[in-house]
Amino acid sequence: MNPYLDLNPSRRDVLALLMAGGAASLAVPSFAATPRRGGRIKVAGATSALSDTLDPAKCSNHTDYIRSCMLYNGLTSLDGSLTPQPALAEEFSTKDAKTWVFKLRQGVTFHDGKPFTPADVVFSLMRHKDPSTGSKAKVLAEQIEEVKATGPHEVTIRLAAPNADLPAILGTWHFHIVRDGITDVNAHMAGIGTGPYKLKEFKPGVRSIAVRNENYWKPNRPYLDEIEYVGIGDEAARVNALLTGEIDLTMAINPRSVDRIKASVKHAIFETRAGLYTDLIMRRDNGPGSNPDFVLAMKHLFNREQMVKSILLGYGEVANDHPIHSSNRFFFKGLKQRPYDPEKAKWHVQKSNLGSAAIPVVVSPAATNSIEMALVMQHAARQIGLNLDVRRMPADGYWSQHWMKHPVGFGNINPRPSADVLLTQFFKSDAPWNEAGWKNPKFDQLLVAARAQPDTAKRAKMYADMQVMIHEEGGIGIPFFMSSIDGHTRKLKGLSPIPLGGLMGYNFAENVWLEA
Q1: Sequence-ordered alpha helix ranges (H) in 316-438
Q2: 176 close to 68: Cβ distance less than 8 angstroms
Q3: Which residues are CB-neighbours of 399 under 8 A, at least 6 positions away?
Q4: Which of the listed CATH numbers 3.40.190.10, 3.40.50.2300, 3.50.50.60, 3.40.30.10 matches domain 47-223?
């Protein structure tokens, strides 16, 4: 779910562009040769709330992720291909994907001077399993059977079943390392981690200020003296704040604001192509989606290339009704692209025998671009005798009251760190977020087998088979992936894409610097 992005253009914009076939040019980031130390920036995200937290385990939106990346580190971190790289662990190894040994980096200290030890790792990982922690990653941590210190600078993690993706999972925000024994990270720890910045001020729902950690373990990092972070919910207000110089960097830019930013000689945009998608959900367990012909008809009504041009203005790419993005190392290139084919859709509609009754399709500004997608599909459906009744719900409460609760509606899924995490959370038969209620025992078996398979080529074949199964049988339609678009002052350098989201997968803080 992505309840904080609203990039919805107007109906008039969409229909005009459908006729005109407008496209957009893509931004290429610029890189300065030598990073410079010093300076202060103000950054705006798209959300802030009184529920903002300093506890990595409880992070629930990009504001929390950004702050967590400033203050903490994980055992690993994810690079531009989402491959896990050493961080607080200098190296990691396994013989069977079930027992993992992590050699810890020496000489690392927390912000208060306390040395980083194996006990901090044991505590940080195991607290996710305690229901009283309220960890958002509890479902991922349940596979961890034991974490124990096996040397002065070593921990061993034993899993309930093999998982070749463990280092990737540990590279995500929730698994950042906190100090041993802290019961309430917000109250007692005040953001004390091993990260590139120290917390100076934290006002939930208002702002946070972080200052450089002079004892950071990465040589010469970070570059900036101070970062102020605020949340601005209204996209137009964020763009105005950027262009007037009130802020230096912002995220979640609407494609329709790009030309305005580009027109400024002092500002630029930064695009990250990643696996962010809004999907049409057709419940396979009730309603018209229980008829596979209806599902296939709807998938053939996506005019994908035109949608990317008209709705995203080119800031995205065509998808193929499965959730694995082309940046993922397990993306299956060999799957034939499903075309826009009204005749085939009509054939499936007639075969489905659903009659002439209107089919409600629930949309909301909360599910980014769902209104525009549904209107385009409604127009195409009329041509083949299918009556779609588009019903708009307010953004407030959409995720709790409407998502997954209607026979036909829309969801919105953020990128995930690995194919396994994405497929486990949204497509496994018993997953709480199995949006379409699609159940396939063979898929579940393949998923578990792939997780345990250390041979990358064999895993790739399994993930290819799963992508085909979702493409052919799954109850979701994914016409395109949406780019994350950030705006920034041209003086800000060092941004590079990490396909977990905008702002370098929220990890910009230790990587950016200001030109003199």
Answers
A1: 342-352, 370-382, 398-401, 419-426
A2: yes
A3: 1, 3, 366
A4: 3.40.190.10
Quick: pLDDT tens for 468-515: 999 999 999 999 999 999 999 999 999 999 999 999 999 999 999 999
Residue 83 Cα distances to 262, 311, 417, angstroms: 32, 31, 9
- Cα distances (Å, whole numbers) of residue 224 to 54, 66, 404, 511: 21, 15, 43, 9
Q: 278: alpha, beta or left, given left = phi > 0 and alpha = psi -120 to 50?
A: beta
Q: Which residues of 77-92 are buried (b: 16+ CB within 10 A; e: fewer)?
A: bbeeebebebbbbeeb
Helices (H), 315-455: 342-352, 370-382, 398-401, 419-426, 441-452
- For 204-262, strand residue ranges (E) read 207-212, 226-231, 249-250
Q: How many CA atoms lie within 13 A of 25 on its CB side?
A: 7
Q: How confident is the model at residue 23 (pLDDT cuts 50, 70, 90)?
A: very low
If you count them, how many residues does the chain have? 516
Q: Is 68 left (phi over 0), alpha (psi -120 to 50) or beta?
A: alpha
- Domain ranges across the chain: 11-22+273-482, 47-223
Question: Nearest to residue 491, comparing CAs of 265, 238, 255, 263?
Answer: 265
- 292-346 residue pLDDT tens: 999 999 999 999 999 999 999 999 999 999 999 998 989 999 999 999 999 999 9
Token digits for 102? Answer: 């992590």
pLDDT at 395: 86
pTM listed for this prediction: 0.85
What token pair was written down for 70? 């400033």
CATH fold of 11-22+273-482: Dipeptide-binding Protein; domain 3 (3.10.105)
